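Fold sample X.
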Amino acid sequence: MQAGVPGRIEVVEVGPRDGLQNEATLLPAATKVELIERAIAAGVRRVEAVSFAHPRRVPQMADAEQVMAAVPRREDVSYIGLVLNGRGFDRALAAGVDEVNVVVVATDTFSERNQGMSTEQGLALWSELAARAHREGVRPTVTIAASFGCPFEGTVSAAHVAELARRIADAGPAEIALADTIGAGVPTQVVDLLARTREAAPAVPLRCHFHNTRNTGYANAVAAFQEGAATLDASVGGIGGCPFAPNATGNIATEDLEYLLTGMGVRTGLDGPALAETGTWIGEQLGKEVPALLGKAGTFPG
């Protein structure tokens, strides 16, 4: 392992939520639960399982309660539910999620498209929901979406994102995730943004969420963990994207990320071949070839 590279990093499986929400094929709840079960069997211990968005806006997530009622409950597995408003928080709490993830979008235009509110209103909502989460004993995390660029407003400054993180930190997040929602970022941006965010919110663990839209997602992931990010998101098969961002293609693939990190001597606790098999399987369920490559090429040495 290289000097300066952490010996271990946590990987959150986001395929059941961010992966499936942008797919045209609507899968039954039982298939979503099997995807989660397969991920857990492959070593995943944090799963972004569902979103409590309005069913008409995101029909792929309409069965969130049904999915959460059927997932295996284990002390070593934490389930994350995405919430966009107070109603979503109520549903998440009733469904028994372990963590709520609230989204604050870095630009007003994208925030209006994604959540029907300005960034300032998103910050106020985060503070309200974080306080509720603390009272209810649910772990509150927050994602700053479009941290590396906005499809409507263009470049997003690192200073602006860091200021958002500083204000978010006032409400006591368990974690701040910096999301490259449209896959626009490059490694130098990652290093700069992580350094600025750490300075703005020094007590909060940082997580990164990368899409491979412009083939920079894996390079960004390397830069993030070398810069000290505690957690990386990935989606088995590399499926996914954001339905409210034009051309926001899939997340980095969990199996390909595992191969990369393991080859660099970083421990993930994940089973790459099992993830690759699951990536191929979910592609079959969706009726498409997934972007992930490990399932096609195999591990090396084989």
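Fold sample Y, listed below.
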Amino acid sequence: MAVTDEAITKIKEMIVRGELRPGDRLPREPDLAERLGLSRSSLREAVRALALIHVLDVRQGDGTYVTSLQPERLLSALEFVVDLHRDDTVLQFLEVRRILEPAATAMAAAAMPEEAVAELRRHLESLPAGASPDELVAWDLELHRRIAEGSGNRVLHSLLESLSGPTHRARVWRALTQTGAVRRTMDEHRAIVDAIATRQPDVARSWATVHVAGVEAWLREALAPGGELSGAPGGAPAREEPPLSR
């Protein structure tokens, strides 16, 4: 095991054992290095690495602290990972989303409070006629955020937030290039919300699967040789059409 990896492991073990809790300040660097049997340089590298993934918070002039360790904070680093990948790899993230999102939607159908369901319906009807692709995607992201939150599972909600936002380019491309994409999106969302409102988890799960699989299938076809995005420089749409209306 590399020295830095060993240092990361030892700090992680302190957190897992409860020696360091959320919000705690780490001991002074020389004291912690001696306690863990590490060089100060390897400890410093470990702290930098753990700060990058939001386990530690380095405050200049104050010290280093364990963060809240909340799922949404720790998983936000996943967005960076998604953004670094090319669009053929984004397909794999969409595949994961196709597995997780239907489960969250089914859970929302069983657990989402009535008031939250009513807010979800209001949001469903809030998209203006003639919305641009960017407006459609922002509206879509918020709808999915509310549903994931309604699952009642914070880890699942955070995972979906990380997977959903960074893949929004695929949804913009679809709205720009696929005829009827906006109408299809609206119809699928309405079916999902209806299933949640009527407390039908299996129906909600099915419609969520159809919805996410549609984006995935379109991107897979568009990235294939001869597809709409296969020859576009820098992964940009090969053509751009006027915004579609509702």
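Sample Y note: Strands lie at 56-59, 63-66.
Also: The chain is about 65% helix and 5% strand.
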